[in-house]
Amino acid sequence: MGVIGLAAIAVMAVLIWGPAYVERQLNPLTTPAGGWPVSAEAQVLHDRLVIGDWHADPLLWERNLLERGNRGHTDIPRLAEGNVAVQVFTTVTKSPRGQNYSENSAEAPDNITPLFIGQLRPVRSWFSLKERALVQAEALRDMAEAAPDRLTLILTRADLQAVLEARISGQPVLGAILGSEGGHPLEGDITNLDQLFDAGFRLMGLTHFFDNELGGSLHGQGDLGITDFGRQVVGRMMQTGMIIDLAHASPQLIRDVLAIEGTRPIVSHTGINGHCQTPRNLPDDLMRAIAAKGGLVGIGYWQDVVCGRSPADIAGSISAAIALLGEDHVALGSDYDGSVDAPFDTAGLAALTQALLDRDLTEDQIAKVMGGNMMRYLAETLPE
Description:
The chain is an alpha/beta fold. The chain has a single domain (3-381), classed as Metal-dependent hydrolases (TIM Barrel, Alpha-Beta Barrel). It has helices at residues 3-26, 40-48, 76-81, 112-118, 129-146, 157-168, 191-198, 228-240, 251-258, 284-292, 303-306, 311-325, 350-358, 363-381, and strands spanning 51-56, 84-91, 151-153, 174-180, 201-205, 243-245, 267-270, 297-299, 330-332.
């Protein structure tokens, strides 16, 4: 075989096996051999909960989520095993090279471009952030159309109610909500927000790991606030019923959004800074201000936000969130498949119910945190 043939084989090997290798490295599981112990009492409680998760990124990885995967944290079969009723699937479109929690430049080379090329995603998504988001949205819609008895896209309050009623009647359908990790897929054009809405998006973060056209990132260059374009976007999101996510927003951007009349933002995936002091967790006073406007805070599962690698560590952060914000403002935000570690995949979610019982939370508090608060918020904020 000639040099060209060998080179072609090498390229194909990278394209076929490279993305899977990267995913395994970036999304490790730290589950012990034999799994985490779950009592019969905890399992019975878990099985009757209505569970929701504000943030997961499996659409980034070009897996058929209708099939149970052998890598990553979540997919439709494992969500069913974990008894999850509603999952927000977030599209990731740009991530700066050398990404960190302290400071990133918007001009840094992008990690997602080579990943999309390596996964052989549609060419139109290789160099357009908007198309990158739309391609991931199309993948989710295609899966919902292929298996409507297992997966349905939630666009309205009526869709949410239909999913919850179906589950009560014994149909294990998962309700999926589309979200965007940052507002940069708008590419500075407000009309693109309507295009994302029409494609099914019902949640959008304003920033991710870098400052963008809407405002400052928690991990950007300076505590920048909202821009004029950002105000336009927030106003249009409120008109359409899209949920504003401040998970990666700078403190000043958060203050600016909260000062806009009628905003009711969430923080989809985070920890509590007073409990786990890391640069990834927002100041406690801002979390209280978000709760005061009727928002929710989703607690993540990974070490950088809960300062540990066990279900007990996640439960500790949830307890701290309840103490800080009240039990009506705390929810789940796993960040599954978001280049983070996790102590269990979504099939093993009952381990968290066990850990919450071990923290002496009441069954009513557990029901609220595991999904009740999220369902109430969605029923009040999704488009009618």
